[in-house]
Amino acid sequence: MLFIYGTVYNSNRIILKSLESVMKIKLEKSIYVVDNYSTDGTYETLQDNLKKYNMIVSQARCTRGRGRQLAIEMAEKKASANDMFMFIDLDTVYSESFADLIEYAYSNIDHNTVFLDNHLCYYDVNHAVPWKDLMAAEDVEREARFISLGYKLTYPSKDIKILENENVTFDREKRYASSIGYYKRKLRLAQDVLIGVGCNNIRNLVFFMRNAKVRKRYYWTFTIIFLYVKIFKKIYKYSPDTNIEFIRRKSKYIDIDFLK
């Protein structure tokens, strides 16, 4: 069984397209979703389609990382050692090529492998590396932790289009809050990015800002947030470099026959 999990907020405009795209995966599967109390009808849409997508849905106030972990914990009640887990973004439409990759990996990866950015892996691997309670860079932190624990983070050697839609261009945080609440969320996001990316010194902060193409006028803002994080928060770090560099150096790439 493939257990697919995710967290969502105010994605009613695209959520059914996202679920339909995942249904292209020709495997026995079940979907677990944590809705962060959506206000646009997302939760109601999910409730109306539970049977169609073999889906279980709950609600919780949570960050993205915590929401994914809560979804995992729901799924684990039904899972066994030979089952696999992966997460999806429910504001994303996945391609048929993505479905092909998942089907391939489901039959070929071992208990030491994590496949793609969706963290496809066996129950034991998934359970060993829970998600951190982060609003941003939660995937970067988890991937670096997988590697630090000896798991192989693996991708196909050939580039392949796995998303049908373009990256989201609107500001996601405007779905969550407005006015002063919006700016509070933006500050928390910046804080969590630095924590998840592992920025514990100036060199890593500068690397992150350049890699993320932060505008120079915001450098001092990030520097002040960095100093706050450095003094008062725990930074998740698994090598002397940023977690981004660590992942890039340690990721594995494999040739997949059907991609040739």
Tell me briefly what this model is.
This protein is an alpha/beta fold and 260 residues long. It is built from ten helices and eight strands.
Count of individual beta strands: 8
CATH superfamily of the largest domain: Spore Coat Polysaccharide Biosynthesis Protein SpsA, Chain A
Q: What's the SSE pattern?
A: EHEHEHEHEEHHEHHHHE
Overall pLDDT, averaged?
93
Helix content: 40-55%
Question: What CATH architecture label of the largest domain applies?
Answer: Alpha-Beta Complex
CATH topology of the largest domain: Spore Coat Polysaccharide Biosynthesis Protein SpsA, Chain A
What Rg do the Cα atoms give?
18 Å
**What percent strand?**
5-15%
Low-confidence stretches: none
- What about the largest sheet? 5 strands, mixed
Q: Calculate the terminal CA-CA distance, rounded to whole Å.
A: 28 Å
**What shape does the CA trace take?**
globular
Q: Which CATH class of the largest domain is shown? A: Alpha Beta
Overall tally of domains: 2
Strand order of the largest sheet: 3-2-1-4-6
Number of alpha- plus pi-helical segments = 10
Structural class: alpha/beta
Overview of this structure, please?
42% of the residues lie in helices and 14% in strands. It has 260 residues and is α/β, with parallel strands linked by helices. The protein folds into two domains: 155 residues, Spore Coat Polysaccharide Biosynthesis Protein SpsA, Chain A (Alpha-Beta Complex); 61 residues. Helix 1 links the parallel strand 1 and strand 2. Helix 6 crosses helix 10 and helix 7 packs across helix 9. It is globular and about 50 Å long. The two termini are 28 Å apart.
